[in-house]
Amino acid sequence: MIVAMQGIATEENIQQVIERMVELGFNVHRTTGASQTILAGVGTPDHFEVAEFKVLPGVHDAYRISSPYKLAGRSFRPEGTKITFPNGVVVGGQEITIMAGPCSVESREQILTSAKIVKAAGAQFLRGGAFKPRSSPYSFQGMGLEGLKLLREVSDATGLLVITEVMEISQIELMLPYIDCFQVGARNMQNFNLLRELGHVRKPVLMKRGISATIEEVLLSAEYILSGGNYDLILCERGIRTYETYTRNTMDISAIPVLKKLTHLPVFADPSHGIGIRDMVAPMALASVAAGADGLLMEMHPNPDKAMSDGAQSLYPQQLQDLIAKLRLLAPVVERTVA
Amino acid sequence: MIVAMQGIATEENIQQVIERMVELGFNVHRTTGASQTILAGVGTPDHFEVAEFKVLPGVHDAYRISSPYKLAGRSFRPEGTKITFPNGVVVGGQEITIMAGPCSVESREQILTSAKIVKAAGAQFLRGGAFKPRSSPYSFQGMGLEGLKLLREVSDATGLLVITEVMEISQIELMLPYIDCFQVGARNMQNFNLLRELGHVRKPVLMKRGISATIEEVLLSAEYILSGGNYDLILCERGIRTYETYTRNTMDISAIPVLKKLTHLPVFADPSHGIGIRDMVAPMALASVAAGADGLLMEMHPNPDKAMSDGAQSLYPQQLQDLIAKLRLLAPVVERTVA
Amino acid sequence: MIVAMQGIATEENIQQVIERMVELGFNVHRTTGASQTILAGVGTPDHFEVAEFKVLPGVHDAYRISSPYKLAGRSFRPEGTKITFPNGVVVGGQEITIMAGPCSVESREQILTSAKIVKAAGAQFLRGGAFKPRSSPYSFQGMGLEGLKLLREVSDATGLLVITEVMEISQIELMLPYIDCFQVGARNMQNFNLLRELGHVRKPVLMKRGISATIEEVLLSAEYILSGGNYDLILCERGIRTYETYTRNTMDISAIPVLKKLTHLPVFADPSHGIGIRDMVAPMALASVAAGADGLLMEMHPNPDKAMSDGAQSLYPQQLQDLIAKLRLLAPVVERTVA
Amino acid sequence: MIVAMQGIATEENIQQVIERMVELGFNVHRTTGASQTILAGVGTPDHFEVAEFKVLPGVHDAYRISSPYKLAGRSFRPEGTKITFPNGVVVGGQEITIMAGPCSVESREQILTSAKIVKAAGAQFLRGGAFKPRSSPYSFQGMGLEGLKLLREVSDATGLLVITEVMEISQIELMLPYIDCFQVGARNMQNFNLLRELGHVRKPVLMKRGISATIEEVLLSAEYILSGGNYDLILCERGIRTYETYTRNTMDISAIPVLKKLTHLPVFADPSHGIGIRDMVAPMALASVAAGADGLLMEMHPNPDKAMSDGAQSLYPQQLQDLIAKLRLLAPVVERTVA
Predict the structure, then answer these.
(1) Interface residue of D243, D248, D250 to substitute, partner B, most B CBs within 10 Å
(2) Chain segment A62-72, per-residue pLDDT in tens
(3) CATH code at B25?
(4) How many Å lie between the alpha carbon of A161 and the closest alpha carbon of chain C?
(5) Total domains, chain B
(6) Residue from the list B29, B36, B65 with its beta carbon closest to the beta carbon of D4
(7) In this structure, what DSSP letter does residue B263 have?
(8) CB contact under 8 A, B283 and C292
(9) Nearest beta carbon to residue D36 from set B8, B27, B65
């Protein structure tokens, strides 16, 4: 940590800062300039709050100079994390992973049709919500356990892996037999109790960025899961909240190269939630892969105009097929492949 | 719902929209203008997504014209909600309610000293975290059950009510014997499973606005609790995330008069998290009451410079006392009182 | 400036940073810790970009530790700036200044009626736009020179001072004979050429915060005016752009105490643009003064329902009168007065 | 326009709204539902403010149902706008246009070297600032007229076109002899007087999106230029301001497909300002073209580590060359070409 004192700081002010730094476990190096004094704290105390120093008398500003996350940092695994699924699919390697399917599981027929389309288009994962987090208590809340069983059944029938959203701790046990990957939604990215439990599970997790989460907060939430011993974690950019309302969210494509630099974890993109408008999902999917994404999570519905949720952003089957065809052409430009 | 068609929309486009509206349960009134057609959907289908219509061919835009929340709306209880606590304290009445205390319960001595200061200054509630949601897994996570017991003990000793944060469903039962009011933190404002459970409890809840929640989302989350039958709900503005980084958050004081207009629920303000800088908590507290807040939730620590969390925004004891003295002068200007 | 190196930085990386710092005019102090090296740059080069250092190889992060503004800083004039107008009105003193009037000058009758109401209510300044910045080229663009003349005439008749918005350099000369204070609108807060010219004028300026300006940017823009020799500058918070759309802008009340701490310049608030909803202007005005504002700028129209611009946020005459009556009661709580 | 009344609105409330709509020039169609009344205003009054209706008694909400821009809308020129420059370069066609060069013109040698590199890499335009808008009055402000002359000289020598930023009206005449395209910077996107003047010039303009401009505001500002008769306008996404601070701005890649749908004007992207970090400019450039951009505006400096401005985001010469090579491979995937 570094504390820059104001020009008008008194020696008493400076001593107060030094004492508190030492108390927290820092060794303090002092640089006295003509205009101000700088205090560099060397060492790595277990926890401290930079904000505490910013309000001490005579302090101009204080800066944390080490990353607050450790296991999530790129230097922990410079070669990058690869996750191998039971059927041999590898996430985080040369091949772009594609996860697609409806927002919600609505019926056996709907999810079976979806699975066939998704498989035929070339995806590796079937997505579909069984438990749905909805802003309104009056919206469709999902099929629950019945939805999980249907997901497993149709995925086994088509050779796909299953990813679905987990919303609370009690659902973890319930889901384990039916799924291949847990999805943590944007609203739960800082549900730390849930994250901690997922750290104790031995099944991969895809964690979406919270709607107003900074990149540092994404990595700190990742740290909750990693520090429990679960290293099979995928991060996913899905749009952040800004002042622009034409699109559902503002997809922060720049977070993709930034995360690829800061962490060893695979980085996915969800262009469906990112933009929220069906006809613009394809350009955003192409942009995500061009920017370095390791995979895509997308909504596709056999009949989006009648979908029970998120129909406006769900691709038509033909749109998914056309998009994946384009991705096959694009991937080699960034030295990747699409199955 | 209203759908405004584009000038170039074909009759086929218009018919597709009408059919879908009818299918959802709307009666459709059509206005044909020289430049465009307008379709007004009359009726109140159980659920529908406006976004679905925005992407239909030939549609210019679509608008929901009824509030998606019902029980939370001002018209449900035009006279406003008052909550009476066991010791007779009333929230939502003429008197401004003050809740104060440390961020975290750290020790018996710390919380007992806090309670005495808070009581002497004139507050009605002691706040203090036993379970702490922390961005980093390496930060102090709270004293847990032991903290709850201490809160109850010192509050009983001083005649204060207890408010503390609940982070997950399993903590509800645990907390019930020890507290007077549940606090739902900003990060859990869209933890719908938790909200639903709190709707089934018969104990008041204070729900903070999420860090990037719109006012409509606040009211929809309130609806989750109210629709379970728990009407003793307090809302709390605590700062939103914007591009400005000088302050911890940007306290949206304007949300106070807006919420007072839209809902019958009491509206509190948390200036400590709102601004995050100790010396500016008082002006923000005064501003909140001037803007119509029914109560304040604030951090005070007997020794903020040594606090285990949020020390930078915790008031010194004397600052709390001075602030409440000023609030007593200010309240009558807005036709309120402070005890 | 401080540069914190990464743990893995090589000696070559460190030398490259040191060389560049020296080249820019810094004296460099080096602290070598077990986990990373810290380079403190002492001295004050004329200009340098911190961002340049952040991308050098081996750098963890870089921090500017001195304020980039000088004349605007509180330490330049610790006692605060007071501006005395020709008729003896003092801005920045104990008394809260009130500026009110319609968005646009529309006619002699409208502006004369406005002036009388504003004066009777107790304000010191009449506001009114003669040149209007409008998002759409098809909206009413103001009466121009004729409007300026009307402003002067009715203000002289009623004993008010005149403030009006200047949009471009060529209007400065034109306005000088008719006005008492230039207003720089939010859209022009970073129109640096305009600011520089206003620095050469000897007439007070009120500069509004840009709709997405940080507090540091506000002070840097102030520096443009101050560095030209014009020290009679008032800053004005008027709402920033956030994701919340219920209100026109999100009024950042917390900017008021922050600016009062950082700068010696008077700080005003414009609750009309801040919230954009007539019935909520009063609570926001009260909140602004409670938070420490030195003055208010507000829209009032004799007949807001027929206003040519901004009618939705313009107070009715009676509302202005009632508000100022409340301000007279509130001001003493924060040790101020209202005339 | 549509006005949805509240369920509790009285007949008097409804009549007041109808009268005001008629007064503004609307024909009003009334739909009376069981729960609320809807008033559809048919017709196109010259100007009106929707906000005015939102605050009338008994109104639930009011919606504008026509676009406030006309000439900028896609329907004005469904086939899209192509701009042909004197040397035959066409912007807005099948070929992606590349504009590159240093942030500022610093010297003859620097700009000549830059031009040669830019030309060799395959770009069509040389960019370079002669007048610089800088947040601080103490930063380098550009070479002025001398810079313009150098730009023209080296571009003629290398066969490039020249684009440079215009900051105020008086610079327009000055620049005309030396440049091929005016650039309006983000800070001037709502400098309406400047836009209006550029509408009277017969030379192409590239207008950047303001740092917090909505897409609708971009198109309204475009309307200022178009309505003056200058149809040779290029729009440019360059990043917006959000809460995320790791990147300089948050590049809103989704604005590219949105603008391509809403307007006929060519849409460019500026990944240098968009992300602000040299090593991440290439992925963002690729993403922009993948999302449908018609061209790129990028900073490249012969020696970025010594640049007088924006060095941190300026590409090394080799990086520009490598990027354009990749763009040549990517363009065909989206049915475009790169020279």
Answers:
(1) D243
(2) 998 888 888 99
(3) 3.30.70.1140
(4) 37
(5) 2
(6) B65
(7) B
(8) yes
(9) B65
Residues C182-241: tens digit of each pLDDT? 999 999 999 999 999 999 999 999 999 999 999 999 999 999 999 999 999 999 999 999
Nearest-CB residue to C274 (from B254, B258, B334): B254
Nearest to A159 by CA among A180, A174, A142: A180
pLDDT tens figures, A110-131: 999 999 999 999 999 999 999 9
Measured between CB atoms, does C63 come within 8 Å of chain B? no
Residues C55 and C169 placed together within one structural domain of the fold: no
- With CB atoms and an 8 Å threshold, state whether B290 touches C289: yes
Residues D58 and D83 in one domain: no
Q: Give the residue from chain B lying closest to D30, CA to CA.
A: B31
What pLDDT is recorded for position D288?
Answer: 98
**Chain C residues touching A75 at Cβ < 8 A:** 7-8
Last residue of a domain, one of C10, C29, C63: C63
Residue A306, min C-alpha distance to chain B (Å) = 9
**If you search the block for the tokens 């893995």, which residue do you land on?**
C8
Task: Tell me, yes or no, whether C57 and C120 share the same domain.
Answer: no
Cβ <8 Å between A241 and C241:
no
Residues A47 and A165 in one domain: no
Task: Give residue D48's pLDDT band: very low, low, confident or very high (50, 70, 90).
Answer: confident
Cβ separation B256–C333 shorter than 8 A = no
pLDDT band at A87 (very low <50, low <70, confident <90, very high): very high
pLDDT in tens, D139-150: 888 999 999 999
Given a cut of 80, is residue B270 above it in pLDDT?
A: yes
CA distance C153 to chain B (A): 36
The fraction of chain A above a pLDDT of 90, given in percent, is: 85
- C-beta of residue C265 within 8 angstroms of C-beta of residue C234: yes
Q: Angle at the Cα of C239 (from A255 to A6), degrees rounded to 5? A: 75
Residues of chain C with pLDDT under 70: none
Do residues D89 and D57 both lie within one domain?
Answer: no
Q: Are B223 and A137 in contact (CB < 8 Å)? A: yes
Strands A125-127 and A95-101: parallel
Residue B63 CA: distances (Å) to CA of B54, B67, B241, D61, D187: 9, 11, 27, 10, 33
Distance from CA of B257 to the nearest CA of C (A): 6
CA angle D287, D291, D297 (to 5 degrees): 65
Helices A145-158 and A108-121: crossing angle in degrees, nearest 10, is 40
Is some CB atom of chain B closer than 8 A to the CB atom of D207? no
pLDDT 10s digits, A259-284: 999 999 999 999 999 999 999 999 99
- Per the CB < 8 A criterion, the answer to whether A292 and A105 are in contact is no
- A86-90, B137-141, B273-277, D160-164: which has the minimum mean pLDDT? B137-141
Assess B253–C contact: CB distance below 8 Å, yes or no. Answer: yes
- Give B153's pLDDT tier (boundaries 50, 70, 90): very high
Smallest Cα distance from B105 to chain D, Å? 31
Tokens representing B71 are 């029980």
Interface check for A211 against chain D (CB to CB < 8 A): the answer is no
Locate the DSSP E strands across chain B.
Answer: 2-5, 27-32, 37-42, 59-63, 83-84, 90-91, 95-101, 125-127, 161-165, 181-184, 205-208, 233-237, 267-269, 295-299, 337-338
In a domain, A68, yes or no: no
Q: In this structure, are C162 and C268 located in the same domain?
A: yes
Q: What are the tens digits of pLDDT across the range D192-225? A: 999 999 999 999 999 999 999 999 999 999 999 9
Token digits of residue D20: 């005001």
Confidence at residue B35, expressed as pLDDT on a 0 to 100 scale: 79
Q: Please tell me if residue C245 touches chain D, with a CB cutoff of 8 Å.
A: no
Q: What is the mean pLDDT of residues A329-339?
A: 97
Domain with B45 in it? 2-63
For chains A and C, CB pairs below 8 A equal 70
